[in-house]
UniProtKB/TrEMBL annotation:
Organism: Periweissella cryptocerci
GO MF entry, a single one: ATP binding
Biological process terms in GO annotation: daunorubicin transport; doxorubicin transport
Keywords for this protein: ATP-binding, Cell membrane, Membrane, Nucleotide-binding, Translocase, Transport
Bilayer topology: Peripheral membrane protein
Membership in a protein family: Belongs to the ABC transporter superfamily. Drug exporter-1 (DrugE1) (TC 3.A.1.105) family.
Principal cellular location given in the protein's record: membrane
Name the UniProt record assigns to this protein: ATP-binding cassette domain-containing protein
Domain ABC transporter: 7-237
Length: 313
């Protein structure tokens, strides 16, 4: 039997006393995809991740990793994935090289193998130049790269990244995204939690949106965007005396209300049928409306987030 899914979760639930932190969640993560867990603070992402990675017992439900029961075969399952964010307690005075050597040895590699693996990972994560510096001198980006390198020592096919870029500056974040894409290109499956909507949009093949412990939506970024409504049309006119007539033209064609933003003479409306853009443009031109700007925008991940999650948990 070939296993198609890296992870299968069925009816996963976690209660802390009376509080239901994760509520009957089911989903699958396919081999080779980047799967994003997205949700507001306190939604239950970390608790879900901790159960999948055997760090926390579930109240009920089932987790399978490459076909193995994560609760009954936890030792086997643990050897199948890498997990970042677990090495914070490492001595800050030791170097990146020493750090990788220690964890390679803990992973059962011989001294010679550990040396080679350390050298390869330092090169892969652009840490060669800083390899012998104390970790205390490392920037946030270098620490994250080292953390990821450590999680890959045993060459896992599945990697969990809990908020891999939180606190990084935009450039370092982009470098981390490249590193993650590289990992996937080499065949790994990646599960990540993130509080950045842009990150989920950029990296994830599919996203599970979690709110109040429940799975509220699952799909590709485009599917999620489509699910919260159609595109919006924005027309900016050059001359404010033409706003009213432009509004009438658009309303007549779309049969919908057009909103006027006082700033920049901008008109906006829901555009369910993109084919209506051409007649709108033609009619505005025929009526000699001086158009400054016209655009059609799909919903953003921000729109998805606000539409699917219900504010503060
Ligand atoms: N050990 C615990 N004991 C009691 N309640 C807990 C415990 N761990 C988590 N919770 C609660 O469970 C809910 C889900 O928390 P969780 O940390 O999984 O959310 P999250 O989506 O990861 O949020 P964040 O983005 O803030 O990390 C929260 O209401 C939290 O307070």
């Amino acid at each position: 039997m070939t296993v198609e899914n890296a992870i299968e979760i069925k009816n996963l639930t976690k209660k802390f006393d009376d509080k239901v932190a994760v509520d009957n969640v089911s989903f699958e993560v396919r081999k080779g995809e980047v799967f994003g867990l997205l949700g507001p603070n306190g939604a239950g992402k970390t608790t879900t991740l901790r159960m999948i990675t055997t760090l926390l017992n579930a109240t009920s439900g089932e987790v399978k990793i490459f076909g193995h029961d994560a609760f009954k075969e936890s030792a086997t399952v643990r050897s199948m994935f890498g997990l970042t964010g677990q090495y914070a307690s490492v001595d800050e005075d030791i170097s990146a090289r020493e750090n990788l050597m220690i964890f390679s040895r803990l992973n059962g590699l011989s001294r010679k193998e550990a040396k080679q693996r350390t050298q390869d990972l330092l090169a892969e994560f652009s840490l060669i130049d800083s390899a012998d510096k104390a970790i205390s001198a490392f920037s946030g980006g270098m620490r994250r790269r080292l953390d990821l390198a450590v999680s890959l020592i045993a060459r896992p096919q599945l990697v969990f990244l809990d908020e891999p870029t939180t606190g990084l500056d935009p450039r370092t974040r982009t470098q981390m995204w490249d590193t993650i894409r590289d990992l996937v290109a080499k065949g790994s499956t990646v599960v990540l939690t993130t509080q950045y909507l842009e990150e989920a949009d950029e990296l994830a093949d599919r996203i599970a949106v979690i709110d109040h412990g429940k799975l509220v939506s699952l799909g590709t970024p485009d599917e999620l965007k489509d699910s919260v409504g159609g595109s919006s049309l924005k027309v900016q006119v050059a001359n404010d005396t033409q706003i009213t007539i432009a509004k009438e033209i658009i309303e007549n064609i779309l049969h919908t209300d057009v909103e006027i933003k006082a700033k920049n003479n901008e008109l906006s409306a829901q555009l369910e049928n993109p084919k209506l853009l051409t007649p709108i443009f033609n009619e505005l031109t025929t009526k000699q409306i001086d158009i400054e700007n016209i655009s059609v925008q799909k919903p953003s991940m921000d729109d998805v987030f606000f539409a699917l999650t219900v504010g503060k948990n």
